[in-house]
From TrEMBL:
It is a multi-pass membrane protein. Residues 171-234, 235-291 form the CBS domain. The gene is mgtE. This is Magnesium transporter MgtE. SMART domains: CBS, MgtE_N.
């Protein structure tokens, strides 16, 4: 058997989660059984079984990557989560806290003593400490800052001075800098003396004696060029760089556009102050995507899936209240046409179709617009053209699918006039959905709000009320 064949196949993340859940279940089951037993050695047996099961679970956790442990913690109810958290080795706490979601991190920190938090944070880098600091108790942050050296303390304060989605808050400070007037052989000898390179080091940063960025030396150029050459001869003197007050999402788009792994961050004088790395950009894009999904549904913040009932209610109530108001308005629109519905019962069966298709079409438009706004593809110069394009799409879809449903209405109720009204109402409601699908996110953006915030709730309200009014109004005019 070859070495490759002899290796144990790597377990999937779901396999690891299933094993942890099984061990937790077995632990609870044995505990229940021992609790029911009585006898002289009951306490001793219970303690032995308890330690045996938890030891097995701890061995399993010791072999799992911190990011995978974070996923497991997020997938467990609170009691099981805290049981697993207590079994994690203390030196791994900091790495895991950085990986879990904000909502889950809150529950884990709440379960830790001050000295445990300090122990978890002591080995973290400045940028990582800045990520955790806003969620730690104030006295712990103060004690933590006092334990840092002057350089680390200044770096943490620098990172905390920026908004969480700015480049300055996302950059790290671990990087390799070199001079342009040394040979590649000198650089290679310097690198060999280092214990290890910072993560995601694909290039070295070339600076002058004042720390001003002069260029970058990609590792691949360092390896393939003549060692006698000077750094200045082979470096790239026009690297993609960022300023600390730039938007992090814009930087993430640049990373995708230019296939970057790392990039320098410079101040207004061109001095190198940090770097961005691909792992931070991937995390930012993922968080932005999750935030947009939550905002589209009207959720105010990320929610722990196993959060308390009351906390989940507080997170969700606002847009449900708005939705209730819009639903009441839609019902009042229907109430205006009670007489028409009584005379032609078919209207009650057909009107949800008009509203439902309009809502789906509006959500499609909003999704496209929000994505285009996130990518910076929309400007004042192309807004009118975009509106015309979306109206054109809706007009064609309205005539096409309105004609289909109109034909179905004719076949069901034997009224060609009802079919025509159905087609016209469908077309008009799709045009309304397209118009609102463009205007709602643009209006939210102009007001300084997230364009996705509650957009699906608002578009559904518009297409429901508008669809009912258009269909029932046309039916009252042309059919009765």
């Amino acid at each position: 058997m070859t070495e490759v064949e002899a290796k144990k196949p790597q377990e999937s993340l779901q396999d690891r989660l299933a094993q942890v859940v099984e061990l937790l279940h077995r632990h609870k089951l044995v505990e229940d059984l021992t609790h029911r037993q009585e006898g002289q050695h009951h306490d001793r047996v219970e303690s032995l079984v308890h330690r045996q099961n938890l030891a097995e679970l701890q061995r399993k956790l010791d072999d799992v990557h911190p990011a995978d442990i974070a996923h497991i913690l997020e997938a467990l109810p609170l009691d099981d989560r805290l049981t697993v958290w207590q079994l994690v080795k203390a030196e791994r706490d900091g790495d895991i806290l950085l990986e879990v979601s904000d909502a889950v991190r809150e529950t884990l920190i709440a379960d830790m003593d001050d000295h445990e938090i300090l122990a978890a944070a002591k080995d973290l880098d400045a940028d990582e400490l800045a990520d955790l600091a806003p969620e730690l108790p104030r006295d712990v942050v103060h004690e933590l800052m006092e334990s840092l050296d002057a350089q680390q303390r200044e770096r943490v304060r620098s990172a905390l001075s920026y908004e969480e989605d700015q480049v300055g808050a996302l950059m790290d400070f671990e990087m390799v800098t070199i001079r342009e007037d040394v040979s590649l052989e000198v650089v290679l000898r310097y690198l060999r003396r280092l214990k290890e390179l910072p993560g995601h080091t694909d290039k070295l940063f070339v600076v002058d004696y004042d720390g001003v960025l002069k260029g970058v030396l990609p590792i691949k150029r360092l390896l393939v060029n003549d060692p006698e050459k000077q750094v200045g001869e082979v470096m790239a003197d026009d690297p993609v760089s960022f300023h600390p007050d730039e938007d992090g999402y814009d930087a993430a788009q640049a990373f995708e556009r230019y296939d970057l792994i790392s990039a320098p961050v410079v101040d207004k004088n061109g001095k190198l102050i940090g770097r961005l790395t691909i792992d931070e950009m991937v995390d930012l894009i993922r968080e932005e995507s999750e935030s947009e999904v939550l905002n589209m549904a009207g959720l105010r913040e990320e929610e722990d899936i196993f959060a308390s009932v009351w906390k989940s209610v507080r997170n969700r109530w606002a847009w449900l209240a708005i939705n209730l108001v819009t639903a009441f308005l839609a019902s009042r629109v229907i109430g205006l046409f009670e007489g028409s519905i009584e005379k032609l019962v078919a209207l009650a069966a057909l009107m949800p179709i008009v509203a439902g298709i309009g809502g789906n079409s509006g959500n499609q438009t909003i999704t496209m617009i929000v994505r285009a706004m996130a990518l910076g593809q929309i400007s004042t110069g192309n807004t009118a053209r975009l509106v015309r394009k979306e109206l054109g799409v809706s007009l064609i879809n309205g005539i096409l699918w309105g004609g289909v449903i109109g034909g179905v209405a004719y076949s069901l109720y034997g009224s060609w006039s009802l079919g025509v009204v159905m087609t016209a109402a469908m077309t008009l409601n799709l045009l309304l959905a397209a118009l609102m699908g463009v205007l709602i996110p643009m209006t939210l953006a102009r007001l300084g709000r997230d364009p996705a915030m509650g957009a699906s709730v608002m578009i559904t309200a518009m297409t429901d009320s508008g669809g009912f009014f258009i269909f029932l109004g046309m039916a009252s005019i042309f059919l009765l």
